[in-house]
Amino acid sequence: MLRTHTCGELNKKHVGKKARLTGWVDKIRTFGKIGFLKLRDRYGSTQVFLNPEFAKRYGQLRKESVVLVEGKVQARPAKDVNKEMTTGEIEVKADKIEVLNESEPIPLEIGDDKSTEETRLIYRYLDLRSGFMQKNIILRHKAAKAVRDFFDKEGFLEIETPMIAKSTPEGARDYLVPSRVHKGKFYALPQSPQLFKQLFMVAGFDRYFQIVKCFRDEDLRADRQPEFTQIDVEMSFIDEEDIYDVFERLMKYVFKEVLNVDVKTPFSRMDYKTAMKKYGTDRPHLKKGGHTYSFLWVNKFPLFEYSKEEKRLVSVHHPFTMPADNSLGLLEKNPETLNSKAVGAPKNKFLSEAMSKAYDLVLNGEEIAGGSIRIHKGDIQKKIFKALKIGDKEVQEKFGFLLNAFKYGAPPHGGIAFGFDRLVAIMAGCDSIRDVIAFPKNKDAKDLMMGSPSEIYDEQLKELNLSLRKKG
Fold this sequence. Notes:
Helices cover 28% and strands 25% of the residues. It is α+β, with helices and mostly antiparallel strands. α8 (335-344) runs parallel beside α10 (378-387) and α10 runs antiparallel to α11.
């Protein structure tokens, strides 16, 4: 290794010992003939004492240059101890300095909150050197590790699902991937592993989880990205109470491990109708004396809602959500009749009475998770598709594999998906999930650093049997 210690490691125990450090030049100061160099890496920073020779030679070295320093650790004078640095009681008296790579003048000050978001995203590799971003990325790592540790102890298996799959309706717009081999056909990047994880339950993997990338082609906000990360979970032979128990304990474990915060359980619960009537939102922020983190389960959601744009029923969560027990009878009625009435009358009895076994987890007024008990019987699933006006042919094309799987002993099952980026942003105290993602897109879904999306060559289009429309 080029270094013997990190820049956040040395303390009084090392006084008199030799050390070799590597890192980035954070600051250089000269006082007459001597100088001081502050060397930084992700572990912290260390002050380096420059004798007259080194002060003269390296006093004008540009910030963010990469250097190697060798020298002896010495105690700082009591008046010069910096209590804000973990290494503040010592400094390294340089015997050797090697410039590994000198930096050009940097286009933004590292950690300067005056830089625009555009500049930060263009030079994201520099922005990621800031203490703010490194703290957030480290917190994200710790949160992911805590999630994996918890689920491993609970007997869950992390199983990967495909990144190129099939386009299915009832969701946001898909990102489509043209097939070169199968001309005119397309894969889709998954909006979630929903159908795969239900098939895991059919396959007998009764406790599944995955920290997984998902993709949705939708307009962006502070808490949305075209690609985002979910904590995706599914369990067999359970009911809603099992979901509440496992995921309250998950939150308690993660917040304690990562932030050393004790989350109080059980979480409060509120049904959808009460939330809307009392707060006008299905994700109310219940402020409690002494806030920092206020968790709330919102449950008993309607099964359907009416889409004015599509002039038909759509699922409030998704079409694989199990109806509430007292709403199953409504599906025995003619869904076509009920649906047609809903077109002219959005407050149709079917809409107001059909409830679901769905639930959301809200944290400080932000929805961080949503899930449901799933349909595991083909006849119920077909009735839902019919109510949603998804025709038999489309059902077979899009979901035939799922209905076939239900024929061969599908167990009762349910699950939930956490917005991991959103959860970490709240834990980090950030307003935007872009501040907890290493390389995010901007509000226009562009990667300003790499310059994507970008045009592709004509040869690539030909290989995919595609052509572009001419403007106008």
